[in-house]
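Consider the following assembly input.
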Amino acid sequence: EAQVTQNPRYLITVTGKKLTVTCSQNMNHEYMSWYRQDPGLGLRQIYYSMNVEVTDKGDVPEGYKVSRKEKRNFPLILESPSPNQTSLYFCASSYRGDRAGYGYTFGSGTRLTVV
Amino acid sequence: GESVGLHLPTLSVQEGDNSIINCAYSNSASDYFIWYKQESGKGPQFIIDIRSNMDKRQGQRVTVLLNKTVKHLSLQIAATQPGDSAVYFCAENANIKAAGNKLTFGGGTRVLVKP
C-alpha cells in the first residue's frame, strides 16, 4: 500500500530533550515536506526537500532541523524542544512539480507535547 | 481523535443536501489548487485538484470551481453524507519551479452533516 509513515503517533517530552520524528514513504517521491498544524493557524510548512541531499526552509523553520540522506526518509529533528513546539505534525510527499499528480500524500500525524 | 482546529468556521448541512465550501486565495501567481479533507485523527486526504487554465472540474460527487478574477475557489459536495463530516482545506501552489511543490493552505472549514 502506498503510504507515508510517521513515528511516533504521540510523544510527550520535556523541554530541551532532543527528539526525532521519523517519516518514510514508499512511493519513490522526490518531494517531501513537514508541516505543523495549530488551532486557528492551519497547516504551516516547516521544511521541505526536493530530492536527496536537497533541503530548504519553509515558513516556520526555527527550532527544527531535517535531513534527506535517502529518498524514502525525511526525519524531523528538534534539538532543544520548547513548549511552543507543542503541535500536530504532518509529513507529506509527492512527485516533483513537473510530473503528473502534484497533490501530496500525508502521513497520519504526530501529536507532540513539550512540557 | 485529534482536534485539528478549535476556531474553524463551521458549515452545518442536512444529510442529502448539497454543500458549498468557499476559499479565497491571495496569490495571483498560483497556478494549481487542491482541496483536502481531514477527518479526526487522520492526515489530510486529496479530494480534487484544478489547474489555473480551468474554471471547473468534476469528480465523484464533488465539483471544484475556480474564479481567477476574484481569486476564489469553491468545493461543492452533492448529496452530502455523514461520512463527509470533516475539516476541508483548500491549498494553492504558486511558481512550482521556484519552490517545488510547496502548497500554502487555507485555514479550513468544518463540515457537520446532520442526519
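The first strand of chain B starts at residue 10 and ends at 14. Ask yourself how this observation constrains the way the partners meet.
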